Amino acid sequence: MATRNRFSSKPDNSLLPWLGISTIVILLDQVVKITITRLFHEGELLRVTSFFDLTFVYNKGAAFSFLAAESGWQRYVLTGLGVVAALAIVFLLKRNAGKRLFCWALALILGGALGNVIDRVMYGKVVDFLSFHLGGWYFPAFNVADSAITIGAILFILDELRRVNQ
Question: What H or E segment, with its residue span, contains residue 25?
Fold first, then answer.
C-alpha cells in the first residue's frame, strides 16, 4: 500500500526523493575519491589514529578485492552487474516508493553501486581510501560507496526483520 503525501490525497509513489538520496551518495563518493587521488600518491598512507589510516589504493576486483588478480575481464563483468543491479533497484524503488525504510536501503545501495560503476568506467578499477586495522590485522580498504552499500544492506535486513515480525 502506498503512503499518502501529507499535502495531497494521491499516493506518494515518487522516485524523486530516493533518486535524490542516491545522487547525494554518488556526489559525496566521487568528490572524496577525487580529493584522495589529488592529495595522495597511489599506495601512500596517512596515519589518522592507532586503528585508522587514510590511504589511496585501487581495487580491480569486487568487495574484499575478490577477483582483483584476474586479467581484466572482471572490470566489464562487475560494471555490467552494477548497471543491472541499478536498473533492478530503480524498478523496486518505483514499485515500493512508499515503503520508507526499504527505499532508504535501496537508495543507499543504488548510490554506492553507481559510485563504484563510475570508477570502473573511468579508471578500470575502484578507488579505496579508508583503512582500519587492529594489532597488525588490516581490514581491506574501502570507500564511501562501499559504506553506503553496507549501510543500505543493514537497513534492508532490518526492514525484512521488521516485516517478518509484524
Answer: helix 16-39
Residue 83, C-beta contacts closer than 8 angstroms, at least 6 positions apart: 117
- Angle in degrees, CA 62, 128, 101, rounded to 5: 70
pTM summary value? 0.86
- Cβ distance 45 to 55 under 8 Å? yes
Q: How many domains does the chain have?
A: 1
Q: Report the pLDDT value the prediction gives residue 78, as an integer from 0 to 100.
A: 79
In a domain, 147, yes or no: yes
Q: Which amino acid is at 145?
A: A
C-alpha cell at 141: 580498504
Q: Is 82 exposed, middle or buried (0-12, 13-18, 19+ CB in 10 A)?
A: buried
Whether residue 10 lies inside any domain: the answer is no
pLDDT tens, residue by residue, 25-65: 999 999 999 999 999 999 999 999 999 999 999 987 666 56
Let me know if residue 92 belongs to a domain.
Answer: yes
Give the domain extent around 119: 16-164
Specify if 53 maps to a domain: yes
Q: Which residues are catalytic?
A: 128, 146
